[in-house]
Amino acid sequence: MINVCHLYPDLLNLYGDRGNIIAVKRRCQWRGIPVSVLEVSLNDDVDFMEQDFVFIGGGSDREQNLIAADLLKRKKELIKAIENGLVILAICGGYQLLGKYYLAGDGEKIPGLGIMDFYTRSGDKRLVGNVAVEIDIEGFKLKAAGFENHSGQTYLGNCKPLGKVLAGNGNNGKDGLEGARYKNVFCSYLHGPLLPKNARLTDYLINLAIKRRCMNIALDPLEADIEDQACLAMLGRLGFGKITN
Amino acid sequence: MKLKLFAAILAGKTVFWLSRLRGNKGTSLPGLVARKFYGDSLRVLAAQVRKEIIVVSGTNGKTTTCNMIVGMLMDAGYDTIANREGANMITGVTTSFILSADMGGNIDCDYAVLEVDEASMPKVLAEVTPSVVVLTNFFRDQLDRYWELDKIIRVIRDALSTLKRATLVLNADDPLVSQFSDNKLLPSVFYGLGKHQRCIKTNSQTREAKFCPYCGEQLIYDYFHYGQLGKYRCPNCYFERPDPFVEVLETVTTKKGMECRLIYDNKDVLLNIRARGLYNVYNAMAALSVGLRLGVDVDIVLESLGKYRTVTGRMESYVYHDKPAFLILVKNPTGFNEAIATLAAAEGAKDVFIAINDNEADGLDISWLWDVDFELLGEESSSYLCFICSGQRGEEIALRLKYAGIPPGKITIDRNIKTAIGNALSGRAGSTYLFTTYTALWPVHKIIKRLATEEIADDQCLSSVSGLAESVRRPR
Fold it and tell me: Which of A54, A141, B32, B116 has the smallest number of CB atoms closer than 10 Å to its CB?
């Protein structure tokens, strides 16, 4: 049984990001692995140590602030689970929340959870468009496609990026980096949503979740024909012909 | 001024005919050019409308509502100007006036009915003074352009605050719309859909308005129609769904459309529309509210709505070798969800064609496809024989369908729109449903017109279909 936890689906539901939950759920179910999805909203109880995959998306400013306050109350528990290898995918606003702070346009410094070493500052123009990135999965290079739409520009401190930007802007449009990774926490600006058409990344996350439970299951290979076609359609448009090298 | 206006009209009309010759529709460019010659073109021409100007804005239903209003005004014998479909920014609105003007700069019309893009409201209202403003609903639409709904609402609020005299015609069921009635200067009229047989208690669809616009408390719903539309109230303050002046209480789907029992001003009448889907009931109620406000005879309004035929892509009917086919334009999750509900409710086996483009007018970001409840189709996948996916992002919609639980064997990707449509029409099912985004609509329309015959609805069919007709007194 894989326990999937969707944080604040009622508040952070921009840009079809729930597709990431659908992707993990289906790719487990198609392999005969049962999945339960727990939706957690403000003040709901959740034990992160019990979870295998946690997803947090992005929302508009008002919702982001509500959530930051709620997450702060859960910070200690969350850090404990992260150190224990909990797999988390955080997209866009959810990504920003995990960092040290967000510097708003008027100079106000809105604190984040401070779990990872990066900060975000409000940019003067929105970074919008299709993106191709190269993600390093344990030495294996993978090209992924998605769509970014953010005004916040993120700068990493002592923290690894998720990947290198091949086309588009990524974290800030300047340093060529996209997303962030710490242990099994994966952060990205990519909507699209990210996981469905980047099936190898999805399978990697599922694998990590299974490993943490010390379950000795090798993931059955699963055909990913339509997934690859959807990914390649965008990679091709951006000038890249192959998903793997 | 006269000379500048003359130059603007001449230039606008010339550009229109030139773009026509090149095969374009010429809906925005003439207005753009005319405004370069004379920035006050729209202001001067719109001021000549004899009676009133009606503006329709909101996310879904603008075009249909406008067309319904135009239809009833024409049927009532009035000369009416309207902007063409999709050309709903200030250049498109200007184009409609430039094309209607004579070379002397005169406009000869009683009414102007203008569809206005939400983000264009400030610009348009700065130059045009409507006496009726209709707000249909607010859903997320083309997120890369309008990333936050709150912002759009603020922009429209500011734009309306510049009006001194106008009636707001508001959808009572949408809390994002009904909140506009707090405008102290402008009176409001509400229309809404009462509790009917298809109401749902909970709603998993993407819901926009979860919080009271005044006090921030989570809204409580007695029931939903779709999206955030329904009967809501704030447990903390006075905000709640207002009582509508125009309300539909029952709907029955008939062979050619819908029959609705409608109450207005304590009168009970029967409204027939030749279209399906609750969104069309809303469009008709909005149009009817405008008709009543303008003092159009209610019999003319009802008759006009009863013969209104949907325009391209808003559920057009065709026949291909005795097999019915329906063409539906999809632009955002809410519209697509409603279209899917219509598809799921239709009987028999179905073949499905979906074309998704990601040009500017479609929305560059197609991630909204993941907010559409295709799972509804996946649960009943035996009712669907094939899904043919096309358009610039055909692969992505195929992927979405696979993850919605449709067996991959039923999903085909065909970038060639022509063969894709041909195969969907000639599939083995009893009917074909074709869904397309905005820029795919015209090519699809062209091809289907060549392959299939357009179905013209029979005027008589509605009155004989359902029992509702006998139980409700028809208006004389």
Answer: A141
